[in-house]
User: Fold these one by one.
Assistant:
Number 1:
Amino acid sequence: MSRNDRRDFLLAAGLSSAALAFAPGDVKAEVLPPIPQVKPQHHIRFAVCGISHDHIHGMIEAVRRGGGEMVAAWGLEPDKLAIFRRRYPDVTIAATQDEIIDRTDIQLVLSSLVANQRARIGVRVMKAGKDFLADKPGITTLEDLALVRKTIAETKRIYGILYSERLEVRAAVYAGELIKQGAIGKVIQTINIAPHQIVQRGGLAGGGSGRPDWFWNDAQFGDILCDIGSHQIDQFLYYTGSTSAEVVAAQIANVRHPDRPHFQDFGDMTLRGDRGMGYVRLDWFTPQGLGTWGDGRLFVLGTDGYLEIRKYVDVAVARRGENLFLVDGKSARYIDCANGPLPFGHQFVADIVQRTHTAQDQVQCLLAAELAILAQINSTRVTLSS
């Protein structure tokens, strides 16, 4: 059987957590069992203030899963707002940002406003006595980062950033559990390969209707290392367990978009933490033939094994994502994580109610943002010969 056929066989047989061994090499294919629906333990009311990036829809669904009730929203762009109204017809649409921030009946505000505006609106939200959840990059300058940290200290509010490539990918969540269990020993290094696609064929990940003007402006967008690189730095910190880290080297390039001088379509960086090392490669070159917006992969090397996540597709094998591969001293395993849990929404709502930091460590969240900003600021710009 092919790996795809084995997985279909296991699913068709109704095996909840089955494993099937094949010789030679003791290769096993497994399927995570479906997770029973868990009723949210808490309820909060939340609002949206900024819908400039389509990631807002995934953010909303995560909080809703955790017990959040969306009661109001504000958006600047007419086309985005029209989609929003159709998708959430029962939600009150505010005329101004102040109508959202000044409401006394909400506990949380979500925002995917233009990237360089997210920190400032988050500060206003926290000063108004509410918690805040930003799309990545949650912060694009060191000045804004300092202001966010100062406001957190003063208000004791939560400033969350939804690094969805870890927090909203089931295989990435399960990989974290395996690493905590010691499945590959002590983590030595993470390698993230994160290709993206500028023009997508539909979907809500962003770009289905073309990119807005601010996408091409590095001052507004944060650009490649600060923006999509923040996802990868978050993973490096989380999987290695590093509490301090530095950007050893970083480079950027504009290879295919000379008409967009304030845009970078390639970047990479090397990271060193107190508990592990990391490498990240980012680009905007995903071809249409892949069938999805990017072939995101994560490799984690440990002292006793290694794992790989093929997050969104298994190239030339299956269009399904959530693929995890683990090799240790006993076997090589393939684990289909499509049924795995997504705990962020439940945990984040609970954090808001209980004033805890289970869903996301506040210090680590902002350290990832800081490293992404520093990588962008200190990167070497490379020009390739024609």
Number 2:
Amino acid sequence: MKAGEIIGSILETIIKLAIFIFLGVLIYRGALMAYDYGYRVFTEAPVSVGEGRIISIEVKEDMSSKELGEMLQQKGLIRDSRIFILQELLSEYHGKETPGIYDLSTAMTAEEMLAVMSQEPVEEESEDELVVIPEETEEEELYISEEDADSMMGEGTTLIEEEAAPEPAE
């Protein structure tokens, strides 16, 4: 064998070894990253512990899970919008988010936020609504006998003050 062939053979072996090491490190890091993502999808902790901050968000009619995740990350409710997308895709609430304004806490997990956003928003009563309770007339007064009162209050409970029952109007 000539010296050139020996040096070429050694260089070829070194290059192959370097490529195998590079591919091994690449596969190892990819596996670690995939494991980390998979683990975080199912065990992601809330942003804050305890009570957390309440933040209002608005879910629009045609909002995708990517847009929703980016908005939640921007507002500080989640850490990673890409993980939220996977959590939404794998949850029972996939595609069930309803438009509306929601109050979410930084102490909620993504699953809890999805559960809240998947419910129909509760309409708050406006201050203009007025509930009118008709005044009682003497004829409509309710008379409760002592036996009825005892059965409603349960055993061991006594009346603080007893009043005479009104006579029925004739």
Number 3:
Amino acid sequence: MPLKNYLLYGLLLLTPLAFAQTDFARQLSDAALKLTAQKVEYDPAYFTIAYPNGDVPKNKGVCTDVIIRAYRLLSVDLQKEVHEDIKNNFKKYPNKWGLTKPDKNIDHRRVPNLMTFFTRYGLVKTISDKPEDYIPGDIVCWNLGGNVTHIGIVVDKKSSDGKRYMIVHNIGAGQVLEDCLFSYKIIGHYTYKKQNAEK
């Protein structure tokens, strides 16, 4: 078979996968935007929650809860996914909180744990200062200073100058849409779709 035919065949095989990923990313962006209609008070308190599919009270949350709730709208339970991976790979996750075993109430609500999970099972993307590198459905993590981490979702809404996509996150004012992609130091950039974990 001529080389050009091999290349065409390969392209045809990859195209459905690319469309599926794009479709999921679009759905994740839509889910995140939907969350901005929900009035939420920033509350970093520890909550005992159900498992699986547990959530803190609907009117409360932090930045990680935006990610968890957006994925849950697409039937992906990050509480369960992260808990099971930490349970089986405890030493591969950060040990910043003095824990000696997994905690299904809080592990998925910590940015460093989500970063580890997305690194293990998602696609790690380029960290840059180029707006075009960040597209709807991407997950971005920042260092706010003093090792305080933050996380949000890139959504399909452009900044007022049209130069970059905006972020849905919760940094204290609830689940909001803001033009803040480059407002803090980016330390993580990922995409994650459930089947990525099914290796």
